[in-house]
Amino acid sequence: MRKSEVLAAESVACLNKALCHLKDIWEEIGIPEDQRLQRTNVVKNHIKGLLDMMITEEESLRTRLLSSIEACRKQLDTLCLELQLPPFEEERGVTMLQQEKEIRTQVEMLVKERTQRMQQLKALTERDQGLSDTLCSDPYALDPNAVPSLEQLDGFRQHIASQTTEKERRRAEFVGIKRQIILCMDDLDQLPETSFEKDIICEDQEAFCLSKDNIASLKLLLGQLEERKAENQAVCEAHREKIQELWDRLQVPQEERELFSEHMVVSKKKNLDALEAEGRRLMELKQLNMQNVTEAIRSEIAVLWEKCFFSSDQQQAFVPYYSNDFTEQLLGLHEAEILRLKQHYEEHKELFEGVQRWEESWRLFLELEKKATDPSRFTNRGGNLLKEEKQKAELHKSLPKLEKKLKAQIDVWEQEQAREFLVNGQKFLQFVEEQWELHRIEKENEKLERQLKKSKQIEVDMLYGTAVRTPTKRRFLGTTTPSKARKVPSVRTPGRSKPPLAGLQERNKENMGQVTGLGVPLQSGGFKTLASPQRNFSINSVASTYSEFARDLSKATNTKSKPDILNSTIAHL
């Protein structure tokens, strides 16, 4: 049994007890029956009125609860719809009070959520409006009066972040362009003229509208200023080149040039005016120094002829170069020619530099080849011999590669220009082939010359007994081993007071038994006495070794000379 039912039973018992107590009092007093009935009816009506009042109040409470539940349900449905949430599912099997409390709590929570979302939307809308004003863009498409969803708020935040980044980028771009515009205007000595230019230079950069059109206009203005600045620089550079040429041709002192050095670097408006004035002054001086200027230009033309590998015919084709009638017309022809030569050199600079590299490499290669035939190079003690050999080998490899590269460049150039690429009036590749052929012929001639010289020397050796020793390795002092020391022979020849060279007897011991004096053994086994005692041959004239002499003799036998008198070391050959 519930406690409330127990309390109700106690209330009934209390009421019965109270009525019994009233009854006893009434009997003791002696209240008649009709009055008792009247008094009991009053008690009943009082109790009944009290209970009815209580019932009415409780029924009113029930009605209010039902009304609250219904109102909360409607509000809850509206909030779920506004917040784009799924419908609220009520818990089943709960009392009316629990149901009302649960629904009311959910409504309060959703109202708070809606309030927060609207506050966030308001803050984001204000930021977006500021960014839109700065970037001159359309506001974010979101109804400020409707409750946004969480996804919409996230998208709005991302849009704000993107706009903020774009604003910073455009701001940095604007600041950079503005700085460049100010520098260009300063270089051009120009003040802001249009309202847009004044807004850029004078207005607070935070107030400047960073729209795409304004940024594009900024870039356009900067481009125009840079173009004008580049034109000024080009004009100034042309004036500087002309002034430098005139300085060189007129031989202007260095002190005078240094006074003008500021204008030779900076290209502002005042510098341009100064350059123009200096150019006019130098042109007047040029008119007064026509011959000197013409001769100075001729020196420059000669240098360009050499750089462009002009042949003598090509050089002589410019007839004014050889004229001595120094007039303004002659000077004009020279100036036109040097401009043409400079343009010609710049157009073909890569080819000319390649040819120059080839010539320098070829010249170095020939020098190393010449050094290779120099006997004095063997006295080297600094390692230069090995370096030269290595350098020559590298040049021998690199020259064909460079020639191949130049050939490809020349082929392309000739196809584009529809004419031959000439160096000194001759096709370069033909010139290269001729150089290699001349080098080969020269090497063959040197080889033949050495062979002829050697053959003649052998003839002289066979006729007069004077042998040229082959260079041998030097011995270091104090390193001779006693066991390997050559014995000096005791044979003495007539007419000589000195003994023959040490070791000769050992080298020619197979022939020493046949030496009887100043005779020469013949192939028949006999000896032929020298015709005259004045011919004094000694063993010192014999070749350093038998094998070396035999090799030389085998080469000498191919010549037309047939000596009658031979040294004793060839008696058995």
From TrEMBL:
Q: What Pfam families does this protein map onto?
A: MAP65_ASE1
**Record GO terms (molecular function):** microtubule binding
List every stretch annotated Disordered: 480-508
Give the superkingdom in one word: Eukaryota
**Keywords assigned by UniProt?**
Coiled coil
Q: Which is a Gene Ontology cellular component entry for this protein?
A: mitotic spindle midzone
Q: What start-end ranges are recorded for coiled-coil regions in this protein?
A: 431-461
Keyword Coiled coil listed? The answer is yes
Gene3D superfamilies reported for this sequence: 1.20.58.1520
Task: State the InterPro entries in the record.
Answer: MAP65_Ase1_PRC1
Q: Name one GO biological process term.
A: mitotic spindle midzone assembly
The protein in question is named: Protein regulator of cytokinesis 1b
Task: List the source organism.
Answer: Oncorhynchus mykiss
